[in-house]
Amino acid sequence: MALFRAIETVRHPHKRLFTDPYAIYFLDNELKRAVKIAAIPLFCGLIQKIINRKAAGALSSGISRTKLIDELLQQTIGYGVKQVIILGAGFDTRALRLDFLNSIPVIEIDHPDTANLKLKKLKEILGKLPSNICYYQIDFNKQSLADLASRNNFNLSIPTTIIWEGVTNYLTQQAVDETFEFVEKLAKGSFIIFTYVNKHVLENPRSFDGAVELFRNLSKIDERWTFGFNPEELSDYLAKFCLTMIKDIGASEYRNKYMPERKELLKGYEFYRVAFATRRV
After folding, report:
1. pTM for the model
2. How confident is residue 178, by pLDDT bands cut at 50, 70 and 90?
3. What is the count of structural domains for the chain?
């Protein structure tokens, strides 16, 4: 995702969906060179096609998903949200790159391995960490989010937006359930924006364009997707945690919304979705 955001950032200012000036710092030298090549208009399409051959639809889905979540997050701030919690933040830098979060307290929670690398890079880039962002570490499959919040006195009494992007498909059912139990404790007027994969891609990868090759590539780097939701059942699942579904949007829909002109990139990754829900009374 850092690669995808870096590539989008070097597009022409009138064509790019967002700017993430920090993304390139999280890449190795080979990927940094790819970004520099992509900055040359003549070669941008070539780099995108190479990525698309390796993971059909991942680039366009990831870029447009980033834009969608940015916009949904901004909406929730407009609705009166006073705090943002980012679960599994990875190398995302929303808390830095989105101006409307400058005066909003942000809590980032991630796996220790990723979090330590990110903090090291941010200190190198910025000199010091931003005062409005707090960083915590947890393994969602092994540790309790509720316990972390209790130990560190998280304020759950104010309207909060949780962003949970690119994480659920790596977790167990228990870890997902426990996270939603935590969300249930949030104040009225809180929101959660999260991604998930259609569980059918885990059961029958051949039913989705590019899924077989994707899983093959994940296996090569010792990664495995372990969890998905059935989209038809998600609203009822969320209701068990006092959450009301607002939107459930698939990759095809948000790609066509934000990049309809990039026809060559709009196929694949249809199993990836973004859900947006609010905390009921």
Report:
1. 0.94
2. very high
3. 1
